[in-house]
Design goal:
single chain, D-Maltodextrin-Binding Protein, domain 2, eight-stranded mixed sheet, 17 strands, 24% strand
Length: 342
């Protein structure tokens, strides 16, 4: 990871303000504020009886963990307190939560919707495995929140995640004007004063990496190109690289390793999840923005994830994300198989 070039202490709020202005910085600050409290709750979970499920099922049909509910309510409350956040969309809620805003609140046209997975991988919490918060900030265009969030991922204003692990790390990418623009990827570590301080700037994914990451228990139901692809990685066919397999089962942790060490994370289509398991708006889009700004790539098997259009806010997608060489190699095999099938 590229070390921060500065000796002075730069908080994530100050970094965001320098690059994207005060309004975006305040949105990022609210997310950081929620993350501090989520981190503390997770760290003490075993002592405060917050492990386990609440006995309810969320809109995804998944058992809601107590910490899912805590994280979701906290993010909603802190983001709702920012005048230029007009709405949020959460993995845990069926539809958008719209905040009543007076006309004057939208200073300088700054109106945002924040889309998030409040606690990804939460089924791992009870076994003390890393979990994360994933977020995406988009502009509210017109009055229709759903319409605003169903625009291409290339239009994200900012995106990133917080990984709760041995240390809490917030990774942030912010968009610039025009395709391909952007401010790059920075990482911030929660310090003893509970500030997210800059610890790496200009983070770049290795051109090729040493790990592949997939749930191979599903391999029998993957499209054949994905099976042949992993076999090609194992055989050293991609530049002679000898890969290791790593799969934590928390996307934020698997993604963070892939970003820093290189390689590929993939969740292909399966019989049980023919459109993949991961969600386009609040998992694939934000991670794709980070990975592309770090020089990597993200596809749904065939096309660039950031250009895939969502039809609904909880739409799922296959995802292949990581170093450019590995992602492009998979894309070639999938397109070649599709071409042969025609
Ligand atoms: P599987 C966690 O539930 C999650 O959404 C991601 O964090 C993770 O990558 C994936 O699902 C794991 O899914 O089917 O391999 O258990």
């Amino acid at each position: 990871m590229a070390q921060a070039m500065t000796t002075e202490l730069v908080t994530v709020e100050a970094y965001a303000a320098q690059r994207a202005g005060a309004h975006v910085a305040e949105v990022i600050g609210a997310i950081a504020g929620a993350a501090r409290l989520i981190e503390r709750k997770i760290r003490l979970a075993g002592l405060n009886d917050v492990y386990g499920a609440v006995g309810a099922v969320n809109v995804q049909g998944e058992q809601q963990q107590k910490l899912d509910v805590f994280a979701n309510e906290l993010l909603t409350r802190l983001l709702g307190a920012v005048p230029w956040v007009n709405a949020i969309v959460s993995e845990e809620d069926e539809g958008p939560v719209v905040f009543p805003r007076a006309e004057g609140d939208a200073k300088h046209g700054a109106r945002f919707v924040v889309v998030f997975d409040p606690l990804d991988g939460s089924s791992n919490i009870d076994v003390n495995v890393n979990v994360g918060t994933i977020f995406s900030v988009v502009r509210l265009e017109g009055e229709d929140v759903t319409e605003s969030v169903l625009r291409p991922g290339t239009e994200q204003v900012a995106a990133g995640y917080v990984l709760y692990g041995p240390s809490a790390v917030m990774v942030l990418a912010m968009g610039g004007e025009g395709a391909g623009a952007g401010h790059g990827v920075a990482a911030f570590t929660l310090d003893a004063e509970e500030r997210f301080v800059l610890t790496a700037d200009g983070v770049k994914a290795p051109e090729q990496g040493a790990y592949y990451s997939a749930n191979e228990a599903n391999a029998a139901s993957w499209p054949v190109a994905y099976r042949e692809y992993l076999e090609s990685l194992r055989s050293g066919a991609l530049g002679g690289m000898n890969y290791s397999a790593r799969y934590i089962g928390s996307m934020v942790a698997d993604f963070h390793r892939t970003l820093l060490k290189g390689g590929v994370f993939l969740y292909p289509p399966t019989e049980k999840a023919p459109r993949g398991k991961l969600r386009l708006l609040y998992e694939a889009y934000p991670m794709a923005m980070v990975m592309e700004q770090a020089g990597g790539a993200a596809i749904d098997g065939e096309m660039r994830i950031l250009e895939v259009r969502a039809k609904g806010i909880h739409e799922r997608t296959p995802l292949v994300i990581g170093s450019r060489r590995e992602v492009e190699a998979l894309q070639r095999m999938v397109l070649q198989t599709a071409g042969e099938a025609r």
